[in-house]
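step=encode ok
step=design start
structure_in=
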């Protein structure tokens, strides 16, 4: 509950940052988003804002991954430069815990700026607690209403069952009129949530098998496959003959300038 509002804040901020990047044309912004040890906000935010890539704690950050992203950016900007196509700003989203203390947002931005070698620039942006503010979105309001109604109905059902059981065992009139409900059933310690299109109330003991308590997240990461869709939309591992020729020309010019 609340993830839709957080995503709206992230996408609004990324749209503003992307406009700034596009006004400077050849600029890549590395945007740091929250989410703890879960990369959900990074993946969904990257998909919704049209980011080129995203870094999440589930996969970590390696030099190989950075090199692939650099090659992709060089290829895209090189083709736009040689083909006289107007360049536009691009985004890379990074989860706040991805890469730990080594590959920070500033470090990644500095690496991109250095490897761009004038072909593109790089800046960093940390959204911070901006993601936790704002007015709740309509979807989150509807979800909260649904969960509240179902939760109260479930509590009433459990309480009435306990009262009926107490009344059947006690002949004391005061206990019947003002009952105190106690239960030792493990199923009454539960969590309400949304699974697919259904609302489910799951006992806490059943959730232990699919919960990473140390990292405070679930083990069923259904959204992880959407990360590949982000790269597909950004045209990763796809190039035409013109793009390949433009990349070879730029790399050749760089090699000559270095020598």
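sequence_out=
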């Amino acid at each position: 509950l609340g993830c839709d509002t957080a995503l709206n804040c992230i996408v609004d901020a990324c749209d503003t940052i992307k406009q700034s990047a596009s006004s400077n044309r050849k600029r890549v912004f590395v945007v740091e988003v929250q989410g703890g040890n879960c990369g959900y906000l990074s993946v969904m935010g990257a998909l919704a804002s049209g980011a080129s890539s995203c870094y999440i704690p589930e996969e970590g950050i390696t030099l190989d991954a950075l090199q692939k992203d650099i090659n992709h950016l060089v290829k895209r900007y090189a083709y736009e430069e040689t083909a006289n196509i107007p360049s536009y700003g691009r985004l890379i989203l990074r989860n706040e815990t991805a890469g730990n203390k080594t590959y920070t947002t500033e470090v990644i931005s500095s690496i991109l700026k250095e490897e761009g070698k004038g072909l593109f620039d790089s800046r960093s942006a940390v959204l911070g607690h901006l993601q936790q503010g704002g007015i709740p979105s309509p979807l989150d309001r509807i979800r909260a209403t649904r969960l509240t109604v179902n939760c109260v109905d479930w509590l009433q059902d459990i309480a009435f069952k306990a009262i009926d059981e107490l009344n059947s065992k006690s002949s004391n009139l005061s206990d019947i009129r003002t009952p105190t409900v106690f239960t030792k059933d493990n199923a009454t310690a539960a969590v309400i949530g949304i699974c697919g299109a259904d609302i489910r109330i799951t006992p806490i003991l059943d959730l232990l098998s699919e919960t990473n308590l140390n990292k405070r997240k679930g083990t069923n990461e259904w959204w992880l496959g959407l990360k590949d869709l982000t790269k597909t939309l950004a045209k990763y591992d796809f190039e035409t003959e013109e793009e390949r020729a433009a990349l070879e020309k730029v790399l050749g010019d760089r090699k000559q300038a270095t020598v």
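step=design ok
step=annotate ok -> The mean pLDDT is 85.
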